[in-house]
Task: structure prediction
Amino acid sequence: MGAAGSRERFFEVPRLAGRLAVLEPLHPSHAEELAEEVAAIHDVWFTRLPSPDGMAAEIDRRLERHASGLVVPWTIRRVSDGRAIGMTTYLNIRPDDRRLEIGSTWIAPSAQGTGLNKEV
Result:
């Protein structure tokens, strides 16, 4: 694969399945479930999370940033009940250096402490 093909792979959003969680490409249809899950934690003082009413706009923002080659966004879906319970993103992507960061991750309180975050 040439350099251009390798570069493009950094921006792919594959579905990734584990024992506890599935990462699936973020989609506007996830807004309702994610809004319900973020309701309990959106106003914590130590990070910025979208409000339930702002979830659709946050999804649109992340998808626009993906289209611009800035991030790669996923919905986190819990395997045990199929529920969308969070989001995670690759960001600060530097294909030429083969480097990226994992961040902008949030997980619903019901999944915290279950090992799901570690698997994600």
In short: Helices lie at 3-9, 31-38, 55-67, 116-119. The first helix runs from residue 3 to 9. The two ends are 28 Å apart (CA to CA). The first strand starts at residue 16 and ends at 17.
